[in-house]
Amino acid sequence: MQANDLRKGQVISFNNEQCLVMEVMHRTPGNLRAFVQAKLRNLRTGRSGDQRFNSTESVEVLTTDRQTLELSYIERDTWCFMNTTTFEQYELTAELVGEGKNYVIPGGKVEVLFVDDRPVSLDLPSSVSLKIIESAEGVKGDTASNVQKPAKLETGLVVQVPLFIKEGEIIKVSTENGAYMGRA
Question: Is 64-123 CATH 1.10.357.140?
Answer without folding.
Answer: no
